[in-house]
Amino acid sequence: MDGTVDLTVEKTRERKFNPGQFLAKYNLLILLIVFISIAATLSPKFLTVQNFLNLLQQSSVTGIIAVGMTFVIIVAGIDLSVGSVVALAGMVVAVLISSGWGIPTAIIAALGVGAVLGFINGYVSTKFNMPAFIATLAMMVSARGLALLVTDGKPVFGLPEPFSFLGAGFIGRFPVSGLLWIALTVLAALVLKYTPYGRNLYAVGGNPEAAHLSGVRVHRHLISVYVISGFLAALAGVVLASWLTVGQPTAAKGAELDAIAAVVLGGTSLFGGTGGVGGTFIGVLLMSIITNIFNLLGLASYYQQIFMGVIIVLALILNRFVVGKNA
After folding, report:
1. Per-residue pLDDT at 16 exceeds 80
2. Contact 185/67 with Cβ under 8 angstroms?
């Protein structure tokens, strides 16, 4: 009899609302709602469907890069080369199309370049036991140099109208680039949550030695995430070139920092083993909304960079504090 009462009391306690646990679970979503409310107060047009669709399109390039970056950071890696890969892929697709290649073939070639560069990043950092920071930093410099070398630093203009569909086209009212970002996010979420490959990535990020002893091919998984990151960075470069209808060798400078910030802001730990693309998606949107708020306030770009950095740090401190209090 006493045991039954104790069990009932225990269940009641479990069901009792815990504000700390609620904040730990939904703190990012709460931050998103807060900043949406601020933006809506500053501009009534912010909450319109059209503005949301514009936000989706504007965030898509960073969002696509961030999906790949999430895979890398889950295994406790880092990829500083993605911005340069974006620029190089954009130049490759632009030059090939301008040279008479078919649009699909040119896109496939550009994506192949991104995947190969990602493979090199992963191979060098794992096989030669080189820190990923150093390997991808070297690739960042090299890929940017290649992007400039392709046309001696000159942009490639005059891309055909059909090519603009991927970056600037719409299906109904929905931007194609935004739909592509959403589709990639959903696909990545399914892979990470429901496949052995995804579970292995979390194991590698959490404890690579234990993962190896469990039969996981750690090096193959590490290389694979850099291939994914390079491929998606190249896809983002194709989307950007399509949106602007120009191949720009200086494009996407600093994109790697935006992607890393969005991933970490979304709850993926830099130490690996935790996180996911759902949080990354919200992190990208949150950063875009903050930028939108700054524009509504008329702040100059250099003030925006300062405040963005401060807000990201404060948000991460809040996240760590809330999660730590309820761990």
Report:
1. no
2. yes
